[in-house]
Amino acid sequence: MTSETRTLRLPKPAAVARRAWPRRLKGLALPVLILLLLEAVVRVGWLPSYQMPAPSEIALTLTELAEGALWKHISTSLLRVLLGFAIGASLALLFAAWVGLSREAEAYLEPTFAGLRSIPSLAWVPLLLLWLGIDETSKIVLIAIGAFFPVYLNGVAAIRDIDRKLVEVAHMYGFSRWRLVRRVLLPAALPGLFTGLRSGLSLAWMFLVAAELIAATKGLGYLLSDGRETSRPDIVLAAIIVLALLGKLSDGLLAALEKRCLTWRDTFTGQEQ
Known about the structure:
Blueprint: H1 13-18, H2 20-26, H3 29-44, H4 55-66, H5 70-101, H6 103-116, H7 121-132, H8 136-160, H9 164-172, H10 177-214, H11 220-229, H12 233-261
């Protein structure tokens, strides 16, 4: 086979599935390397332990926290994220469908939403505290605001990026509005919607920390604040690690759901080296 007729060989789905676990194990190489490097740097004395504890010390702190109030902080933060994300994402999908399908709705709503999404997350905190107090409601509303805009933006973009020919063919076959949405628009927009949901979930975790750092008596954000106030960088880093693990786990669950819902797609998955 000459270079002019060389073709691109795509991996078969079965081969991709067999290589999934080795590829995931490769993803652990960089974190393990960083941990070993930090351990060596701190033990040698190049970094002071009161600023950057060794990973082994952080592991001990995590063990001590797990025997105490860590699970209470995790459950509190997880419940706040789930409620806030569910509210924000649900509203975002409704408005995205409305704006994406109607130019009239876009004319009324898009300028306002464009202004609101440019407001920094911390700017909402004092207003929500004044309106809703320091209880759970203000925190959940702040998380919902954080989750709303990524889901909304990706939802509108996903609907507007649908090939117009698909809609025209559906009209030619006499599809009703509901059948058009169910059989054409929703399947075509689903990849973009999942991208928005995953982005919204990651921002929900970020907004959670913003809420708990300012007004909370429990949660991972409160644990971060407590570590700072008591000059315990090991607690701060332990809380950051737990947040990273929870964020990765929640994103992985959404990614698995996305893969299950989009099994009909035959897309390029990358080349084997």
